Amino acid sequence: MRKVVFWFRRDLRFNDNTGLLAALAEEEAVLPVFIFDERIINELDADDPRISFIYKTLKGLNIELKKHGSGLLVLKGDPLEVWKQLLEKHKISKVFSNKDYEPYARERDRKVEQLLQKSSIGFYQFKDQVIFEEGEVVKDNKEPYHVFTPYKNKWLRQFIPKFERRTINFKRFLKQQQSFPSLESLGFSFSEKEVKDFNLSVAVDYGRDRDFPAKNGGTFLGPHLRFGTISIRETVASLWSISEVLVSELIWREFFMQILYHYPKVVHQNFKPKYDGVKWINDPVDFENWCKGQTGFPMVDAGMRELNTTGYMHNRVRMITAGFLCKHLLIDWRWGEAYFASKLLDYELSSNNGNWQWAAGTGCDAAPYFRIFNPSEQLKKFDKDLVYVRKWIPEFDSPEYPEPMIDHKYARERALKTYKEGIK
């Protein structure tokens, strides 16, 4: 019996799943598949909380499918090799998936498509994780925007704040229960850190509270958008009349996605080549103190400890910690970007890269190199009562807490001199 395959990736939900709905509209029954990509997961710790979250989400999808006599086929390996095995075991007519815009994913999908074409199998991909993809919000001459504000303005002009829930016909799934693997059989163990449920109720006060880490006014949408457990279309439509600021944050996400698509070099290079000559100091001891939250700058240290303990960090504090690493310590933004990538539960390559290059001054629409935030002044503005600081630095009021590792005035002057000398 020939069948259609739907390949789950960054879209781990049934609701408003564009590619899945298209697959279910076909005549053949749909076999749902998820592949743990060894090229990605082999770089992670055995108890990486993101893997735990993916696994729990997949298990939930499988439980729902079992109610309808079906099941989710969960596999592990190099995707190309896995697809070769799938073609040997199943008579597949078509493969459906949703688009992924990251460089590695695009190359992976290109190879899979070539493999499928050899067997005359169509590979159909759909826009799902964004409102507008890389070619939809561009300048009049079709070139991509490098500056956020005009991109945002055009995005807003094109967006229609309307959402219609599209229901899933579970009868269209292949009537075949699958053996669901244990997490241990996949080479992983459950993490003590958990991805929090998203909370859109904070949207009403988000614009007022978002800069104050002690208020805990975040939505925790990041991981859910990253892994597609929530629909971006439904999310933006529900927030449209409630929080202009929060909608703007989601537009930033798409802005950085289209930058990464058009300029994949940014993964390892400065967006602006004129900063290639900046001579980073890259002191490993300084970097270690930053990672551990032992710099002597309370807002920086509280943020790093929150990250290390929970996998989250408040957005305002991310900006402060990143700016401190790049400009106070003159450590290459790529070091910090990689550390955040290893820790953040909401890690997304495009946003992480874009924001780190923004902080370093090397990216598109970046903070100018001469904008150097004073961490002590930031503390006075956004945690003046030290509620956030004392939460994450219990020894703050004791001699055990270190003195500042560098003088702000000296660090600022050194950064200005280094950037000026390095700019081409």
Which runs of at least 5 residues are low in confidence (pLDDT < 50)? none
Helicity range: 40-55%
Total beta strands: 5
Structural domains: how many:
3
Instruction: Compute the separation of the termini in Å.
Output: 63 Å
GO molecular function: deoxyribodipyrimidine photo-lyase activity
EC number: 4.1.99.3
Enzyme class: lyase
Protein name: Deoxyribodipyrimidine photo-lyase
Attribute tags:
about 425 residues; alpha/beta; Rossmann fold; Serine Threonine Protein Phosphatase 5, Tetratricopeptide repeat; DNA Cyclobutane Dipyrimidine Photolyase, subunit A, domain 3; 3 domains; 5-stranded parallel β-sheet; 18 helices; about 10% strand
Topology:
Blueprint lengths: L1 E7 L9 H7 L5 E8 H4 L7 H18 L6 E5 L1 H11 L1 E8 L4 H16 L3 E5 L21 H11 L47 H4 L12 H5 L5 H8 L4 H19 L21 H9 L5 H13 L4 H14 L4 H11 L5 H12 L14 H8 L4 H6 L15 H15 L2
Helix pairs in contact: 4-5, 6-10, 10-15, 12-13, 13-15, 14-15
Descriptive account of the structure:
The protein folds into three domains: 1-128, Rossmann fold (3-Layer(aba) Sandwich); 130-163 and 200-262, Serine Threonine Protein Phosphatase 5, Tetratricopeptide repeat (Alpha Horseshoe); 273-422, DNA Cyclobutane Dipyrimidine Photolyase, subunit A, domain 3, CATH 1.10.579. Strands 3-2-1-4-5 form a five-stranded parallel β-sheet, with helices on both faces. The N and C termini lie far apart (63 Å). Helix 6 (148-158) packs across helix 10 (244-262) and helix 10 (244-262) packs across helix 15. It has 18 helices and five strands. The protein is of the alpha/beta class. Its EC number is 4.1.99.3. This is Deoxyribodipyrimidine photo-lyase. Keywords: Chromophore, FAD, Flavoprotein, Lyase. InterPro entries: Crypto/Photolyase_FAD-like_sf, Crypto/Photolyase_N_sf, Cryptochr/Photolyase_FAD-bd, Cryptochrome/DNA_photolyase_1, DNA_photolyase_1_CS_C, DNA_photolyase_N, Rossmann-like_a/b/a_fold. Belongs to the DNA photolyase family.
